[in-house]
Every structure is written in structure tokens, then in C-alpha cells.
């Protein structure tokens, strides 16, 4: 299998019926970027910036943040990198960022909520990203945005930092794209209002499904009770894709599910064309895509999406097996 995946790495992921897909990597360390060549991904769809903060004993300084982001951009070459701003809180707590114990951390003070309440932290990170991307394309997205107003506020911080750089004679990025993760159901219902505000969307299915099913993603007892391959979840994702298309917003999926071939069949069937995943997923997903009849899969998945079934996993597995996917 490994040899087969290695052979596929330079072949573009086009389905058997001609749909061009884009496969991207999830990463969190400068080292991960080398997987781009190894597996043949077209860029980094999710760079989790909190890793640097989690392995550090003190708040990483502006220079060390800048250095990491510059290394990542350099290693990626002309392939796009989407940086996600700090996603702390929930289960990711730092000893040097004061936080109270919370009853429900996943529903608490986390991600962009911390960034908006402690803007110095987020502004510093944005400054580091802007510095690192001098003369290059900069793509940044915010985690767990719940309302359009929160997105506007986060974007305003980025604009302020860009202005600061200009005022200080810094070389700006050649292009700045500011996007948002769709992880909170409320934001998933706000996509028409993000038109003209956000530059792109990325669906974090790990969190989106946790909030959709009201089931802690880290608690197997409840998280394994519900399946993303079920009618309610797939209908929800389909609507997000349709709203994104209607708003002219590029949309990708960057949750772990995107790296599993069976789930990727369903996502392709719902019309998603950009998937970001762990390096280990790229070979298997690409192998599936190269033989996939996306139109047939769309019809088959639509037929399977019935509310009386807790999951379509069994049916979809049979369908995939019968087609040799
Ligand atoms: C997600 O929630 O799906 C996601 C990609 O972000 P993380 O797993 O880092 O929360
Ligand atoms: Mg998330």
C-alpha cells in the first residue's frame, strides 16, 4: 500500500468523472510541512498554531512566533498555508494564560473568545503572521467563531495590525485572505451574512459534530454513539456547502473525518471539493478519488440519507466495496 500511495503522489486528485478535488494537509509543527512533498498535498489547509504555545513553558515571544510562521511558509514554497489563530481553552490550557476551571470547558471560554477578550494575545499573533508573510500570500482563519459580529471583531484586529505594519514601513503580505472556521452551529446558519466579510470558510467537523450532536468529542462513550455519516449530519453539511456556494465563499472540510476515504466519498457526494487532513489520509483518499464516480456517489448518498437510519455507514461501505473504491 505504501508503495502504491507513493506512486500516486504526483497525480492530481481528479475523480473518474472529471471532478477536480484539492487535498490539503493538517499540520502543527514546522516539521509537518515536509509531508507536503512526501504525500503530494497541494498546501496546508489547517496549521494549528497552538502547538508552539503548548510545548513552551512561557508565552512564545513575537520573534519566535514569527520565526515559526516564516519557516512554515518557506518550507511550503508556493503552496498555500492556512494558519489558524490560537485555539486554546477547552482541554488545551496553558499554565501561563490564566483561566478559571469551568464546568463545561468545550462550551466555555476558548478559541477566538479568548482572543477577543484578550486582544493583546491575538494581535501579537496576527502581527507575527503578517511579519512572517512579508511579500507573500497570507491566509489566516479564526477558530470557534459563533457570530458574524465576532468574526468582524477578529477581522478588525487583523486590519489594525496590517495598518500598524504599514505605518511602521513594514513590507506587507502580497495578498491577505481572512477566513473562518465553521465549528459552531450558529455560525453555520450565518453563512449568507459572511458574504463580503470572510474570504473563505473551513468546516471543523470535530467540533461542529460535537456541538451538533451535543456529544463530547473526547468522550468515546457518547461521541461514538453518533455518526457524521447520518442523514441529519450530512444534510447539515450539504446545506453549509450550498450556502457557501451561494455566497461565493470557498469552503473546505478540515476535521479528521476528511482524511477517511469513506467519509470523503460522502463529502465529495455532497459537493465538497477541498479536503484538509492528516498526512496519513492523503494517499488513501486520493486512491479513492481517482476511481470515484462523483455523480453516481451523489445520487447514491442522497438515496441513503433517510432519517430512520442512525447511520448510512453500512450502506455506504457496501456501495464503496461494490465499486472497488
Ligand atoms: C475541528 O474542530 O474539526 C478542527 C479541525 O479543529 P481542532 O480539531 O483543532 O479543534
Ligand atoms: Mg476545532
UniProtKB/TrEMBL annotation:
Signal peptide: none annotated. Coiled coil: none annotated. It is found in: Cytoplasm. Belongs to the PEP-utilizing enzyme family. This is phosphoenolpyruvate--protein phosphotransferase. The gene is ptsI. The chain holds residues 427 to 751 of 753 of the full protein.
Amino acid at each position: 500500500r505504501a508503495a502504491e500511495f507513493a506512486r500516486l503522489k504526483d497525480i492530481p486528485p481528479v475523480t473518474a468523472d472529471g471532478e477536480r478535488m484539492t487535498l490539503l494537509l493538517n499540520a502543527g509543527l514546522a516539521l509537518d510541512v515536509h509531508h507536503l512533498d512526501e504525500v503530494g498535498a497541494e498546501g496546508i489547509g489547517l496549521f494549528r498554531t497552538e502547538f508552539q504555545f503548548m510545548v513552551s513553558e512561557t508565552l512564545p515571544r513575537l520573534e519566535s512566533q514569527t520565526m515559526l510562521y516564516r519557516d512554515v511558509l518557506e518550507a511550503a514554497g508556493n503552496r498555500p498555508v492556512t494558519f489558524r489563530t490560537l485555539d486554546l481553552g477547552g482541554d488545551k490550557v496553558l499554565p501561563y494564560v490564566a483561566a478559571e476551571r469551568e464546568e463545561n470547558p468545550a462550551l466555555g471560554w476558548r478559541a477566538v473568545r479568548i482572543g477577543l477578550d484578550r486582544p493583546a494575545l491575538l494581535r501579537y499573533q496576527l502581527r507575527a503572521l503578517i511579519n512572517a508573510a512579508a511579500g507573500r500570500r497570507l491566509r489566516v482563519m479564526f477558530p470557534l467563531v459563533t457570530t458574524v459580529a465576532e468574526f468582524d471583531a477578529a477581522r478588525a484586529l487583523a486590519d489594525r495590525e496590517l495598518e500598524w505594519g504599514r505605518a511602521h514601513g513594514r513590507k506587507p503580505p502580497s495578498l491577505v485572505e481572512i477566513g473562518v472556521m465553521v465549528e459552531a452551529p450558529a455560525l453555520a446558519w450565518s453563512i449568507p451574512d459572511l458574504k463580503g466579510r470572510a474570504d473563505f470558510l473551513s468546516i471543523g467537523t470535530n467540533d461542529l459534530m460535537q456541538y451538533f450532536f451535543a456529544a463530547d468529542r473526547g468522550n468515546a462513550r457518547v461521541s461514538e454513539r453518533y455518526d457524521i455519516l447520518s442523514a441529519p449530519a450530512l444534510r447539515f453539511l450539504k446545506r453549509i456547502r450550498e450556502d457557501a456556494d451561494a455566497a461565493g465563499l470557498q469552503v473546505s472540510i478540515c476535521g479528521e473525518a476528511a482524511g477517511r476515504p469513506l467519509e470523503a466519498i460522502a463529502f465529495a457526494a455532497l459537493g465538497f471539493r477541498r479536503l484538509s487532513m492528516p498526512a496519513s489520509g492523503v494517499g488513501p483518499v486520493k486512491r479513492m478519488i481517482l476511481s470515484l464516480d462523483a455523480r453516481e456517489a451523489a445520487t447514491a448518498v442522497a438515496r441513503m440519507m433517510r432519517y430512520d437510519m442512525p447511520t448510512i455507514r453500512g450502506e455506504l461501505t457496501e456501495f464503496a466495496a461494490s465499486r472497488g473504491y
